[in-house]
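$ ./design --mode recover --in tokens.txt
reading tokens...
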């Protein structure tokens, strides 16, 4: 067990925490967050939102504040972008996930967002984490690209310690010597987080690979490994995108991925497969503390938000 993790640690017998976002239960079943990297225009955002909703997504993502490597790159529309997201939510009913990059913006961005995202580059921005904790909003905390699991869980601890229990973790790839992919998507964090923490774990295969054709196989692998959800970039016209144009799925690609995810979930939900998978996913080899408590530690039943929303 990792030392000094108190509130984020999975205690013996403790179940995965379910974070309720306007009725979408993250930590139960499979939750799909989809939408553009950046909010660019009202039309782009709303058309994408309608398309991902129709394909079965549960929440809409879209950045109004973009943490960009270059100060000359598109930085996001700010307040205008948040207002567009608000319209998209009204249009589709999808809860909105959007990033906050500045401590001073947490409370007012929280008025537009259903989930505040803290990005990889800000994972260890401790004052931002504290403000996020004080906001009481659900927080999607991405893993820093150079961070260990221990560091990541300590960051979750900062939010939890402010009295906000609503923390969702998201693995988005780390920097390794391998440069073929944008990042190295560390899917071993799925069982590792399940072993150490009761917080739900999502996977972002878009930033995790940066390569369009890799997003589908890594999404399927993440779900097979027990991820509680996925965050995926989708754009109605990726070629015209103002950020991350090479990794945003088109709508037909997203629809095709959702169909495969549905089939994979149906297969995983078959009683024999479901019990075999729960053994594997909730009792990682050599993790005796969890093994002893496997009955109580099993993940919530496989059907859930995903099946409910698509059926
Ligand atoms: C994002 O999801 O918009 C983003 C910037 O991701 P990350 O923080 O993982 O790079
Ligand atoms: Mn992006």
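writing sequence...
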């Amino acid at each position: 067990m990792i030392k000094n993790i108190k509130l984020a640690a999975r205690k013996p017998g403790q179940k995965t925490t379910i974070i309720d976002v306007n009725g979408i239960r993250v930590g139960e079943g499979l939750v799909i967050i989809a939408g553009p990297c950046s909010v660019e225009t009202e039309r782009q955002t709303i058309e994408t939102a309608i398309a991902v909703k129709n394909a079965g997504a549960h929440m809409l993502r879209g950045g109004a504040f973009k943490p960009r490597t270059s100060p000359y790159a598109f930085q996001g529309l700010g307040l205008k972008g948040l207002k567009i997201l608000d319209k998209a939510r009204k249009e589709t009913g999808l809860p909105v996930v959007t990033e906050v990059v500045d401590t001073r913006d947490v409370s007012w961005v929280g008025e537009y967002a259903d989930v505040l995202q803290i990005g990889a580059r800000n994972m260890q921005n401790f004052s931002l984490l504290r403000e996020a904790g004080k906001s009481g909003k659900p927080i999607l905390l991405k893993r820093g690209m150079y961070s260990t699991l221990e560091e990541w869980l300590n960051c979750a601890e900062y939010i939890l310690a402010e009295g906000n229990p609503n923390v969702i973790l998201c693995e988005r790839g780390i920097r390794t010597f391998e440069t073929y992919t944008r990042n190295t998507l560390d899917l071993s964090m799925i069982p590792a987080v399940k072993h150490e923490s009761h917080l739900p774990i999502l996977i972002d295969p878009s930033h995790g690979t940066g390569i369009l054709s890799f997003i589908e196989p890594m999404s399927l692998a993440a779900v097979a490994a027990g991820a509680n959800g996925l965050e995926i970039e989708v754009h109605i016209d990726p070629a015209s995108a103002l950020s991350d144009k090479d990794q945003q799925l088109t709508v037909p690609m997203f629809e095709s991925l959702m169909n495969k995810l549905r089939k994979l979930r149906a297969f995983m939900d078959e009683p024999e497969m479901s019990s075999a998978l729960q053994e594997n996913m909730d009792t990682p080899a050599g993790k005796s503390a969890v093994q002893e408590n496997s009955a109580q530690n099993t993940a919530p039943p496989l059907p859930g938000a995903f099946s409910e929303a698509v059926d």
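exit 0
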